[in-house]
Design goal:
By secondary structure, the protein is mostly helical. The chain is built from 14 helices and no strands. The longest helix has 29 residues. It is globular, with a radius of gyration of 26 Å.
Length: 292
């Protein structure tokens, strides 16, 4: 906080936290979310054969985090769908990405410089959703740290956490792709961000919410833009987890046992040894067949 004040960034952080998300930032969020849907194998064919199922998948990509948060807090799951402006905007983006003539809209938003702008703006929405989710959970559970962390986490990465359900709508079942088993960078970052915002909300982190939103948004935007520009699927947390996980859990970040890389596999049952007579007899039979 003192550093931000010394750099005269306190007012900037406060102004940034008050920037409205609708419609520009929300539009970017919808564009990137539905782009990821179109990247899924079979998504284009699904939109042609079953457009309603494709539209439902798109809505889950755009609003899945709100649905999961409402489920955790015991609120109506369909509550957010009363926001007509957001639903219409997301539906328009879905139609343009999947059905625009000559794929013109898709080609425009996939152009890397344009896509990076959308990705950066999506991270702004993600961080704000984490902060709002934790504030909402704190209103219901003043001392429920785990409730606040869980709500903030699903607010930031709800789409990924319910990916298996979304796959079922597309007729796909891949339980090995469970996001809990293989966390991507946004899911991990949302979890760590939820912890930070929970500490701030409960006054254990002496930083204003506006300053934390500003700093964490800079981190998320920088990392996600870099990963997207370099087409990388790694995570900035991999190095830290490589040191921490073996100490705390005795395993690597992916659940591997670092001390067993050179360990031999399970012994295979040896084949029964064959005598010289059997080998000779087999060779004689092969020669006889060839001669015949």
């Amino acid at each position: 906080m003192e550093l931000l004040s010394a750099l005269s960034l306190g007012e900037l952080a406060l102004s940034f936290s008050r920037v409205p998300l609708f419609p520009v930032f929300d539009l970017s969020y919808f564009v990137v979310s539905i782009l990821y849907l179109k990247y899924e194998p079979g998504a284009v064919e699904l939109s042609r054969r079953h457009p309603m199922a494709s539209w439902l998948c798109a809505m889950l990509h755009c609003f899945g985090s709100y649905i999961l948060a409402d489920l955790l807090l015991g609120e109506p799951l369909i509550d957010y769908f009363s926001n007509n402006s957001s639903i219409l905007l997301a539906s328009a983006i879905w139609y343009l990405i999947f059905f625009c003539p000559l794929d013109l809209f898709y080609k425009c938003v996939c152009f890397l410089p344009v896509k990076l702008i959308f990705v950066a703006m999506k991270e702004v929405v993600r961080v704000r959703k984490i902060a709002v989710g934790i504030h909402h959970a704190h209103h219901h559970y003043h001392h429920g740290w785990f409730v606040m962390i869980a709500t903030g986490w699903v607010k930031g990465s709800g789409v990924a956490l319910m990916s298996n359900f979304e796959q079922l709508l597309r007729g796909v079942w891949k339980p090995e792709t469970n996001e809990i088993l293989r966390m991507s960078f946004p899911t991990k970052a949302s979890l760590y961000g939820a912890v930070l915002f929970t500490l701030q909300q409960t006054r254990w982190l002496p930083v204003s919410k506006a300053s934390l939103i500003f700093v964490f948004t800079l981190f998320m935007v920088s990392c996600k833009v870099f990963l997207t520009a370099t087409h990388s699927h790694s995570s900035p947390f991999d190095v830290l987890e490589g040191y921490v996980c073996p100490v705390l859990f005795g395993t690597g970040p992916g659940g591997e046992h670092p001390h067993n890389h050179g360990a031999p596999g399970p012994p295979h049952s040896p084949l029964p040894a064959r005598s010289k007579e059997e080998l000779t007899e087999g060779s004689r039979k092969k020669k006889t067949k060839k001669a015949d």
